[in-house]
Amino acid sequence: MQGWSSILPSVSHYLRLTIRPGLTVGKAFIVLAYTVAIVYAGLLKSNPFTQPVRSGWVAVSQVPVVIILATKNNVPGMLLGVGYERLNFFHRYAGRLVVLAVNVHALGFIYAWSIAGTFTQHLTVPHYRAGLIALVCADVLAFFSTSFWRNKFYSVFVATHIIGVVVLLGAICMHSNPSVPYVLIAVGAYALDRVLRFVKTRYAYAHLTALNELGMTRIEVPVVNAGWRAGQHVRIRVLSRGMGWFGWAECHPFSIASVAKSPNEEGLVLMCKKAGTWTTKLFDLAKRAEYGEAGGYQHGVRVLIEGPYGGPGHTLFASFSGALFVAGGSGITFALSAVQDLVQKDLRGESRLKSIELVWIVQDPSMLIPLIPTFTDILSQRTYATIHISVHYTQAGNAQSALKTLSQKPLPKDLTLHAGRPKLAQTLSSVIDQACALSLFKRGAPRKSGAGGINSTGPCGVIVGVCGPGGLADDARSIVGAVDSKRRKQVGGVEIHEEVFGW
Question: What is the pLDDT, as a whole number, of residue 503?
Fold first, then answer.
């Protein structure tokens, strides 16, 4: 079944255009419609300067919306087939509108009381004091929710969020009794989410390996070998003294880099890039773990694994005729999981794919060295689909030593190394050509299952999966949108799935 992006490619292309990092035209339309609805509800037969009660009710009515969009397991995400991380943008926007409505509600009363000279007198009333506390909590939440605090001081962001929300909800109940049902809905949604997160959490031992060339830590959990789809991620806590006094309390998301029910029984594999304080401590812990110094556990460390979450949702990669995966840096974890899963499905005759292309963009060619065995294993599989992996390095300054090392390691025929950025438009065109050529043996004559995949009568489209920084996703979107309409129709449509760094 074709997605809307294949049925209405022009509309989909324009909706995916980037206005600024993290904001597309499609998202802008949604938040504009939501804003209009909130403003209409706040202004209908009401003047916010003389009747500020209405804005208070608007704020309270949206509290459950904000809380539900903040949970990891929520109904909107299940129905839409998207992970919580894709709804986080709307959670933040709805939260800002709630804070705005709270301030309009409070300032209206504060202004009236100040003019009348009764401000101090009103603050002696308990439910007015509770309202003032709620106002302070809302503003504190808004201040510590900015990107500066989220990116630079994540622990402060989390602590203020937890304390602020608890106090805010309590203050709302004390401020207005009719608001209690809204608070109970929000609390109920959050409680359900916590229960589901507990159910989806596993306690296990993990083996750590420091991948120096990649600047990553490989986490291998052999006892967890099933229960996820390619492209999904888990949230992990490392319970080790080596992570510091409070490092054990931090929970971080990482894409799964292995396939479920792997034949080599390596279990769940994560590859965590050294990008901050916590991941740096994890990398150092992995180095010590190799010598049996990781908190006294010679065979690994204790971890809590929660998930899985996210992933391609309703998109089934194996239902397409061609697949192009583009990964930037640590985004290779998403691509590895997806390609390994497609290889296994191809071997079982459960895939329509005829051509798989993996493009990995790195800074230094030495980053290829640790993954040569993995790539070699993928390419050695006798699949019906053609598989090609190309690695492109963008910095040639320190490349000589790495290239010398790689020259001593024979690479598989379908694994190539190139200098400079890839020409994605040409690569996508090649995947489309192969998908069409290998699919159209005889239109109307279904291919037998097991001889190259599930029954199909022609090209079933091409999927482009991209994982990396926002700029890489923008490039992929632009290239997909530029595909000629005739070729798009010939191949059965070209769709895109994005996994973008940052939040």
Answer: 53
Q: How far is Cα of residue 237 from the mean position of the Cα atoms in its chain?
A: 18
Q: What DSSP line would sit under 189-244, residue for residue?
A: HHHHHHHHHHHTEEEEEEEEEEETTTTEEEEEETT---S--TT-EEEEEEE-GGG-
The rounded distance, in Å, linking the Cα atoms of 288 and 303 is 16
301 CB-side CA count, 13 A: 31
Tokens read off for 308? 């899985």
213: CB partners within 8 A, 6+ apart: 364, 366, 367, 369, 370, 402
The answer to whether residues 268 and 234 touch, using CB atoms and an 8 Å cutoff, is yes
Which residues, 6 or more positions from 490, have their beta carbon under 8 angstroms from its beta carbon? 432, 436, 459
Structure letter (DSSP) for residue 448: P
Q: How many CA atoms lie within 13 A of 284 on its CB side?
A: 13
Label the pairing between strands 216-221 and 201-211. antiparallel
The packing angle between helices 424-439 and 470-481, to 10°, is 50
Find tokens 């301030």 and name the residue.
Answer: 103
| Nearest in space to 289 (alpha carbons), one of 213, 203, 217 | 217
Question: Which percentage of the chain shows pLDDT scores above 70?
Answer: 91
Work out the pLDDT band at 451, boundaries 50, 70, 90: very low
Query: pTM of the full predicted structure?
Result: 0.86
Contact 385, 414 (CB under 8 A): no
Q: What is the separation, in whole angstroms, between the first and last Cα of the chain?
A: 31
Q: Is the pLDDT of residue 262 over 80?
A: no
Q: Which residues pair with 204 in a beta bridge?
A: 303
Residue 369 and residue 409 in contact, taking contact as beta carbons nearer than 8 Å: yes
Summarised one tens digit per residue, pLDDT across range 421-449 is: 999 999 999 999 998 887 665 344 444 44
Cβ(175)–Cβ(130) below 8 Å: yes
Q: Closest Cα partner for 266 from 377, 385, 381?
A: 377
Which residue type occupies 92? Answer: R
Predicted confidence (pLDDT) per residue in 346-393, tens digit: 988 888 899 999 999 998 888 888 899 899 999 988 778 899 999 999
Nearest CA-CA partner of 182 in 84, 75, 68: 68
Each residue's pLDDT tens digit, 58-110: 999 999 999 999 999 988 888 888 889 889 999 999 999 999 999 999 999 99
What is the rounded distance in angstroms from the CA atom of residue 33 to the CA atom of residue 24? 14
